Amino acid sequence: MMAESGYMKIVGGNNNNPDSVPDETDDDIMLSGMMAERTGSVTAVLKQVPNQYIIFAADPKQAKRDEDAIIAFTWRHFIDDPTKPEWLLRLPMTKAAVKAMDAISAFVLDVAKRPVTRFCVGGESKRGWTTWTTAAVDSKRVKCITPIVMDELNMVKNLHHHFRAYGGWTFEFDDYYEEYVTRDLDNPNTQLLADIVDPISYKDRLTMPKLIISTGSDEFFLPDDSYYYLNQLSGPTYLSMLPNTDHSCDGKEVDILHNVESFYISTMKGYSFPEVSWVLNSSSAEGTINVVSPSKPSLVRAWYAVTKSSKRRDFRRYKLNETDPTSGPVLQDILWVFDGVTKHSDTQFSATYTAPPSGWLAFFVELSFPVPGGSVMVVTTETNFVPPDLPFPDCKGLECMGNLV
């Protein structure tokens, strides 16, 4: 079954040296090669998504833009004029991924005389978002997805939750802040934008197996983003929260590779996926996660962390310097600690924590499952919080402009 399968990772890069070709020392190429060797399948890396740097003719600043600066500019253009959806950067990023699968299939058929008809697609951050939309538009070929550090589904509602956690916007949203996208969060055109680019708009197509990889101290996204979309997704859907790393996934590259491999192999070989369900309970004093897994995990443990702030429910590795915001972000040094769980049987487990003296405690349960062939698939529950409340009132209308924190 792996013979006709391929894994494609979408990554970034730039066009500063358009004649350059990646070599075997490139990290993405090396990791992709390792996966190809271990899985006996085709793997590929799609670079330079999006095409950047770019200077827009319509940009009064004539800025040399990349990454979020491009996306924010195209969002601003759409919010001002929603009759031109072709401005949205997500569309060409998605098209690039679809065309890359065409090219991979054609190349392998020509060189190796073997078809590649089934893909698993993955990527991080903006490429993680493109992973979702690639699956939405090409669900016939895309048999599984592994979006990494991008689970801002149900975008508008999730962003309102972001505001309530921080009382503003993470400093990483500076490009969107400068384009007044945050000010227009409640603008009807922002919802029209979300109707096009938000993966939740395509939930009826996103029924393939999904391994959603997030980090506990992400500067962009929050540990409980899943509260706003997970129950709307169908098909095998798993979370994998990585402790002690941030949006960069620094230090977790090999862990991610091994987990993605296990998930990819399980999908393409038709292995049974683990069964896991959980219930979160929380009060001002105590929180519990009760987990049931008939699949009998080989390892179960909990991870927990406590905020440094008593003002914001903030587990980011970095935050903006409050005394001098112009000096840039500073390290918060949030530490996630692993812990045991209460084992009620081979299939039932629980973790319980009390509220800290100040701030918030977050925790989740991690379960490991053996996969035929010797690999291991690691999944987690959603994250619970003690106390469960969000510290700030929601924003409305123009007050959503907020501040960076």
Automatic annotation (TrEMBL):
This is Uncharacterized protein. It comes from the Eukaryota. It comes from Ciona savignyi. PANTHER family: AUTOCRINE PROLIFERATION REPRESSOR PROTEIN A. InterPro entries: AB_hydrolase_fold, PhoPQ-act_pathogen-rel_PqaA.
